[in-house]
Amino acid sequence: MNVKEIPSYIVDLGRKYGATDIAAKLIESQKVMIRFSNNEVTISKIFHEATIEIFVMVEKHRAATSINTLSIKNIERNVKTLIRVAKMTTPADVYAPLPKGPFSYDPRLLKAPEVPLDPETLSSYVERAINSALESGAKRAAGTLSAFKSEISIATSGEVYASQEKAGLELSIRAFISDVATGHFLSIAGKPEDFNPEEAGRVAGEIARAADNPVPGEPGKYMTLLGPMVFADIVNQVGILSSAFLVDAGQSFLVDKIGEKISSEKFTLVDDPTLAGSIGARAFDDEGVPTRRNIIVENGVLKTYLHNSITAKKFGKETTGNAGIIVPTPWNLIVEPGGKSFEELSAQIDDGIYVTNDWYLRYQNYRTGDFSTLPRDGIFRIRRGEIVSSFRELRISDNMLRILQNIVDLGRSRVWIKWWEVEIPSLVPHALISEVNFTKPLI
Q1: Which of the chain's ends, N or C, has fewer CB atoms near its CB within 10 Å?
Q2: Could you tell me which of 344, 342, 266, 269 has the C-alpha nearest to residue 304?
Q3: Of the candidates 363, 249, 239, the residue with the CA atom closest to the CA atom of residue 303
Q4: Domain ends where: 175, 209, 243?
Q5: Distance of alpha carbon 131 from alpha carbon 145, whole angstroms
Q6: Looking at the structure, do residues 299 and 424 belong to the same domain, yes or no?
Q7: Domain check: are 227 and 201 in the same one?
Q8: What is the pLDDT of residues 74-116, one digit of tens each?
Q9: Is the CB of residue 157 less than 8 Å from the CB of residue 11?
Q10: Are residues 29 and 85 both part of a single domain?
Q11: How many C-beta atoms surround the C-beta of residue 102 within 10 A?
């Protein structure tokens, strides 16, 4: 059997063995990953992978699994087991059949741009990023470069049969002056002409150079400029926790907030997977429904949750084309830009802090939005619009809704962010926040 026929075969098996509804998604991918440290490439790996994700319903009973061994025998065994498991699960509150196709898809989203996978070209990207970091003042650089091509094929009991290509380049570079003076930046692109390794290296190097000789920061509340990597983390929280599944489970600070002003009117957030050539472009969701542009927050007002067919029925809405069959998810988050340059944003700070990066964002309470995260790499004291010193040993301990409501202004320049702290590709600017609470990190 041709591997691309597997989703349809699984759907036929599911019907045969008693599934009310079944969906199968095949992901075939080629990926090249290059790691570098101390200004040199250290590891280059090539991956070829194929994975099947299966979701079944027997009326209100549901189950899902993932398969990496694609033999006929293993597939049949897993489908039988999955249906048996589904019948034993606690029934859901509602039953919604998988959407009925076939559907029409935007042809621009079905074909991905050509992305180089040859190690020679990719190594040249790494070299350009390293050289740019060194020219900007760094002493050494490390990081990863990944290039991928993949094809997503789905079949469902709703008579959906579709496939689309995806491709992208992702560079993450960290520049060092010393162990405590570092800078980090990225270049993320769905097509080579949008990829800029030199810019990523330059920014990382400049942050590292400015971060030299940091001193322990003083806890307190400060007007704060969040760099795109930090603001993207905040934006991801809003996008991911706008999932109707998480709202229904009470695991979101957006519960019961549709139509309410949850942020400054400066903030508009859109999920737009219809941007052809972007790294998060998607033609259809995991139920085969065509994707669409969804405004999540408009001028500070929460406009919608993200739905699949099941959550849509439960909420009395229509699907937004964001299935994840179990948990609806955003695909491609876009923040509408402001009108200020970096210098104009900084000029509004009389005494505050500029944070360029963060990691380990964790919630103390999902429902209220209380969270903390650790600033990393360059953390700077700003006085009268100018960077005057470098900080370390600070933690942000605050509340998501308070951060959003305290947005004073946004930058006009935006960059794509995606790395292991930022799951969903996000196009974001700098964000000026009137007050952010900083504490000392736990030792």
Answers
A1: C
A2: 269
A3: 239
A4: 209
A5: 15
A6: yes
A7: no
A8: 999 999 999 999 999 999 999 999 999 999 999 999 999 999 9
A9: yes
A10: yes
A11: 11
The pTM of this model reads 0.96
365/120 Cα distance (integer angstroms): 47
Total number of domains in the chain: 2
In this structure, the answer to whether residues 142 and 290 fall within a common structural domain is no
Report the C-alpha gap between 44 and 26 in whole angstroms: 26
> Which distant-in-sequence residues (6+ apart) come within 8 Å of 280 by Cβ?
190, 273, 331, 332, 333, 424, 425
Half-sphere exposure of 121 (CA within 13 A, CB side): 10
Query: What residue type is 238 in one-letter code?
Result: V
Provide the pLDDT for residue 442.
74
Tokens standing for 29?
A: 């991918």
Whether 249 and 373 share a structural domain: yes
**Residue 290 and residue 321 in contact, taking contact as beta carbons nearer than 8 Å:** yes
Question: Do 109 and 137 share a domain, yes or no?
Answer: yes
Q: Is-contact 313 328, C-beta < 8 A?
A: no
Q: Tell me: the pLDDT tens digits for 128-184? A: 999 999 999 999 999 999 999 999 999 999 999 999 999 999 999 999 999 999 999
The angle formed by the CA atoms of residues 181, 147 and 275, to the nearest 5 degrees, is 100
CATH of the domain at 145: 3.30.2290.10
Among 186, 209, 232, which residue terminates a domain?
Answer: 209
Domain that holds residue 15: 3-209
Q: How far apart are CA 34 and CA 148, in angstroms?
A: 12
Do 109 and 178 have their domain in common?
A: yes
